[in-house]
Amino acid sequence: MRRLINRYILKEIAVPFCTILLVLTFVLLMGKILQLMDLMINKGIAFADIARLMILLMPSFLVFTIPISLLMAILIGLGRLSGDNEITVLKMSGVSLYQLSLPVACAALAAFVMTATTSLFLVPFGNLASRNLLYDMAKQKASIGIREKVFIDDFQGILLYAEKISVQGDFLEGVLISDNRITREPSTIIARRAYLISNPDTMVVTLRLEDGSMHTVDAGLKNYRKMDFRFYDVRLDLAASLSEKKEADAKSGAEMTIAELISKLRSLGIKDEALREMAIELNKKLTIPLSCLVFALIGVPVGIRAHRSARSRGFAIGLALVLAYYLLRLGGEALVETGRLSPVIGTWTPNAVFAVAGIISFYMAASEKPLSLHRRRPSAAGGNPEGSGSEAQRPS
Predict the structure, then answer these.
(1) Is 87 exposed, middle or buried (0-12, 13-18, 19+ CB in 10 A)?
(2) Which domain range does residue 212 map to?
(3) According to the 3-state scheme, what is the secondary structure of 33-92?
(4) For the segment 46-85, what is each residue's pLDDT rounded down to a tens digit?
(5) Which residue from 68, 271, 306, 378 has the fewest beta carbons nearer than 10 Å?
């Protein structure tokens, strides 16, 4: 009998959890999908690379959507059982709130494991892999975007023209470049041949020119300079069309694992801003998975409150709780970034506040105590106060 009840409650939670998880993840991914489609349609990036990038970006969304989906699923599932008086029937049959919470605890533990695995392993791997994939896409864009006898302005500050491209696409011939990155002294470069060279270590795509000359005229059109060269490198800026270029000699905090973050925090010579950023990232990797357990703790007593419109009520309360939680989190992180709070206090306060509220609410729900602060009026047998009771004397 207990197993049947547990499976029944798990089913009531699992269905809305999967539905909300898919919807929320898709909504968050929609903002990226529009940018990725622009890369495929206008920049010529292959659909396979776009699909890989979407998969690599998925873990960074799941760490937020899994806890939120769990909270809303608990509120909707238990709210439906409570609204149909099934919770009341189970209690009258001798099933306590602690026993009813067992399947919810199992669901919370499963969500905790999923979120912890995503936060600790999949997110750093996905961020680093997506960064490398963006670099590969940048190389691909640089190679396939250049066409014969066409002026190319995809690269920031550079206008490129190639008279001929080899059949294999290894080099360009008859290259003309207008470089306007230095506004005071724009230059024109003419080269017999050019090669696209990529450096995986520094993640830079370079156009190496061979046998050419650079022509420069100052802003006043008074001085003219010509420089002949055997080899000359032009760095192609791909940040404007793909994403903001990051420093490639070090990982960011979001790309590091816990071991790497701890090792970086223990090293000397780190600026205070970078130190606080890494401390925030380290604590976020720990606190976000724990939010699943905190949400389950506060979701059970709130979800069993009977109401006719269980789904709409559960969804609205879930949004309010999620909004309050993440406002506390964002506020704490902002105070940590400015140095007004320690990273531990700023990142752990939302979990602590919601855990205390959940414990109090759960205890009051288990002991059948109302959440309101109003006292119950004594019955007529114990003495009616003034103005109370059905048998109070009324003037005839």
Answers:
(1) buried
(2) 157-236
(3) HHHHHHHHHHCCCCHHHHHHHHHHHHHHHHHHHHHHHHHHHHHHHHHHHHHCCHHHHHHH
(4) 788 888 888 998 999 999 999 999 999 999 999 888 888 8
(5) 271
